[in-house]
Amino acid sequence: MSSHREAPEIAKDPVADSSDLYAFVSPDRPDTVTLIANYVPLQLPSGGPNFFEFGDDVQYDINIDNDSDGRPDIVYRFEFTTEITNPNSFLYNTGPIDSLDSENWNRRQFYSLTRIADGREHRLAHKLPCPPCNVGPLSTPNYTDLVQQATYSLSTGERVFAGQRADGFFVDLGAVFDLGTLRPFQQLHVAGRKVFRAEGEPVNATDRMNVHSIALQVPLGKVRRRANRYGVADQASVIGVWTSAARRQARVIGGESGRGVAAGPFVQVSRLGNPLFNEVIVPMSQKDLWNSLPPTEDKRFAQFVEQPELAALLPALYPGVFGNLDRLNKAKKARADLVAILLTGVPAGLIDGFTNATGDVQADMLRLNTAIPPSRRPDRFGVLGGDLAGFPNGRRPVDDVVTIALRAIAGLTVPLVDRTFRPDAAAAAVTPGLSAADVTAGFLPAFPYLGTPYDGFNNPPAAR
After folding, report:
1. Residues 6+ away with beta carbon under 8 Å from 370
2. What is the rounded distance in angstroms from the CA atom of residue 213 to the CA atom of residue 216?
3. What is the per-residue pLDDT for 405?
4. Which has the minimum average pLDDT: 7-11, 297-301, 366-370, 396-400?
5. Is the dihedral of CA 250, 254, 260, 263 positive or negative?
6. How many domains does the chain have?
7. Model's pTM, two decimal places?
8. Which of 174, 89, 99 is nearest to 140 (CA)?
9. What secondary structure letter does DSSP report for 439?
10. pLDDT tens-digit readout, 311-361
11. Quick one: which of 42, 344, 74 has its CA closest to 171?
12. Which Pfam families does its entry note (predicted)?
C-alpha cells in the first residue's frame, strides 16, 4: 500500500513501480535534504537465481519543483546497465561476494546519474556499481561493507546510493483490503461483529520484504530556488518532490537474444508523490491514467480529494462510530483540509509555526519546508503529533503515514478549515495499529537510512 501495486497496469511491471517516496531534511546533515525513491516492491528475499534489480530499460527520475508551478525545475535521472561475467553459468554468484568487483559475482549492475536543471544536463557520475542483493551468509557475508562501498560522495556535493534495502513501509495489507478491516477495531466492523469478539493483533504485511532504493542526499542550495532568505514562512523554503519512471513507447518482443528491442520516446508509466494518493484516492478506472500524467494535471482528480470514497466508507463499515463524519459527508462539503494537505500545501495561519503551501496549482507532490529543522525525537504522527518535521511536511521513514491519512480522512483535520466541526472521538484513535517498531530491520541513523535488506537464507516468511 503506499504505492505497492496501486494500479492495474503497473502491478504487472514491478521494475517500474514506484512503491514509496521519502523527502526530509537530513537529521545527521541538516544542511542537506534526503530523497529516497523505492521500486520493485514486495521482494521475497530468497527470490533467486534471478535476484531482483533495477530495469536497464527504465528511466528513473526524482523530480523537484522549487517555484510552485507543479513542474520539475530539477531532475535527478538514474539509468542502469547490467553486465554478465560468465555467460555460461545460471548462477547469480559462484562464491562469496566480498567486493563490488568480485569475480564471483556473475550479474553486476551499474548506473549513471544526470542532473537536469535550467534546460541543461550535467552528468554527475557514470558506471557507479550497485551492491548485489543480500543472498545469504555464504554469498554476501559482509553485506554492510558492500553497502558502504556502494555509497558515493560526489564532487558536486551529492551523496548517492542505489541498491536493495529492507522495505520500511509498515501496513496491515491483509486486513485493510479485507473490506476495510482495522484489526484494533475489528469487532466494531459491520461484518466483523459476526466474526470477531475482541480486537485483533495487527500484521505488518510488508515486513521481511525488500525493495530497490534510489537514495540521494543533496545540499539545500541545490534544491531551493534563489532567494534572499529561507525562513519557515518564506515560500522559497518549500520544495515539491515526486518520483517517476518511464519506458520506451514501443517494444518488439523476440530476436536472437529473446529480450526484444525497445524504441521510441520515453513515456511515463509510474509516479508517486504523497503516499496512498493513487492507491486510496483515485478510482480504479483512472489509476493507470493518473500514473501517465504530470502533477500539473491533478486538478482532474481534485473531486476525489474533496469527496474521498474512504470517508464515506468509514461510517458504513463502522456503524455508530463516525456519526459526525457521516453528517459531514451527507452535507457534500468539499474537504478543503484534504485539498490543502495533498494538492496545494498547508497555508500559513492554520498550524502555529508551520506552512508548506506552494500556491494555487493543484498537484500531488511531497511538499517539504526545508527551513524546519529535523526533530531530535521524531513523533510517528508527524504534524498531527506536533512534530512539524514529519508528514505531511515531506515524509520520513518512521512516519506512520497510514494512520495519519486515516485520521485526516476520518475528519481529524477538518477543524483546520472549519472550526465549527467536531471530529468523532474515533478520528483521533483510528489506526491499523502498526509503527516503525514492527519493521524487523531497524532504520539506520544515517544515509541511506533504510535498513539492511533481509537475506534469503535467514528470512523465510515470518510465522504468524
Report:
1. 25, 33, 220, 223, 224, 230, 237, 238, 239
2. 10
3. 97
4. 7-11
5. negative
6. 1
7. 0.96
8. 99
9. -
10. 999 999 999 999 999 999 999 999 999 999 999 999 999 999 999 999 999
11. 42
12. DUF4331
Q: Is 94 exposed, middle or buried, given 0-12, 13-18 or 19+ CB atoms closer than 10 A?
A: middle
Q: Which domain holds residue 360?
A: 10-171+206-438
Does 179 reside within a domain?
no
Q: What are phi and psi of 117, to 5 degrees?
A: -155, 145
The pLDDT, as a whole number, for residue 262 is 86
The answer to the question of residue 5 being in a domain is no
Cell reading at 309: 470514497
> With the C-alpha atoms ordered 297, 298, 301, 307, is the resulting torsion angle positive or negative?
negative
Q: Tell me, what amino acid is at 428?
A: A
In sequence order, which ranges of 258-400 are alpha helices (DSSP H)? 287-292, 302-306, 309-317, 323-330, 336-339
Cα–Cα distances in angstroms (integers) from residue 278 to residues 124, 172, 297, 301, in the given order: 32, 18, 13, 10
Q: Residue 462 — very low, low, confident or very high, per pLDDT cuts 50/70/90?
A: very low
In this predicted structure, what is the pLDDT of residue 460? 63
Residue 28 has pLDDT above 60, yes or no: yes
3-state secondary structure of 140: coil
- Strand order in 18-25's β-sheet? 18-25, 32-43, 210-219, 159-166, 152-153
Residue 187 lies in a domain: no
Of residues 203, 200, 202, 206, the one with CA closest to residue 169? 206
* pLDDT value for 260: 80
Phi/psi at 100 (5° precision)? -75, -10
